[in-house]
Amino acid sequence: MSGRKQFDVGVALDQAMRVFWQRGYTDASLDVLGAAAGLGRGSIYGTFGGKDALFRQCLDRYAATYAAQYEVALAAHSDDPVRAIEAFLDVVLARIADPSVPTGCLIAQSAAQSAILGEESRGHVRTLLDIQRRRVRGALAAASADPRVLDELAVFVVAINQSLAVLSRAGASDAELRSVARLARTTVADTLARAATGEAAGD
C-alpha cells in the first residue's frame, strides 16, 4: 500500500528470534529488537503485540524450526529407542555446532530466565519443554520397560538437551559436549536393559 512500509513478517521474526537467542529476554530491548528486525516500536506493537507477544512468537518459530529435525531423527529408529535417542542428541549437537546460529538454545536460555518472565511467557516456555518431553517419551514407547521408567528417561533426555545448550554457551568444547551425549546414550541403554531384565525375571 502506498505510503506504508512493507516488510516480511517471517524475516522480522527470524531477526528478533536471533536477538532473544543471543541476548536473552532482559537484554533484548525494543530498540535492539527493532533495529535487528528493521521495525519501529509502533510496528512491533502493531504487528506482534509488544515485546512479550513477540517473544512468544519467536519461541514458537524456534521450536518449529527444530521440531521437524527432532521428529525425523526419532522416527527413523522407531523400533530402537536407544538409537532414536542417539539420533535426537546428534541433531542437538549439530545445532550447537552450526556457526550460522547463536550458541545454546533459545528455550534453554528462556527457561533459565523464567523468574523475570511474565506469567504467560513463563508458561509458554514450560509448554515447549513439555512438548519436547512428550516427543522423546514417544520414541521410548517401543522399549520393554515400566512406563514410569520411560517417563523418567524422557525427563532425563530433555535435561541433557538443555544442559548441552548451557554448556555450549559457557564455552564447552565439541569433544566435551559429545562426551556428555555419549554418556547419556549409555545411561538410556543401561536403564532400558536393566528394566527389560527385571521384567523378564518377574515373569
Automatic annotation (TrEMBL):
What's this protein's name? TetR/AcrR family transcriptional regulator
The entry's DNA-binding region feature spans 29-48
> Does Transferase appear among the keywords?
no
Q: Does the keyword Transcription regulation apply?
A: yes
Where are the coiled-coil regions? none
Pfam families given for it?
TetR_C_13 (PF16925), TetR_N (PF00440)
Enumerate the spans annotated as HTH tetR-type domain: 6-66
* Alphabetical keyword list: DNA-binding, Transcription, Transcription regulation
Tell me which InterPro entries the record gives: Homeodomain-like_sf, HTH_TetR, Tet_transcr_reg_TetR-rel_C_sf, TetR_C
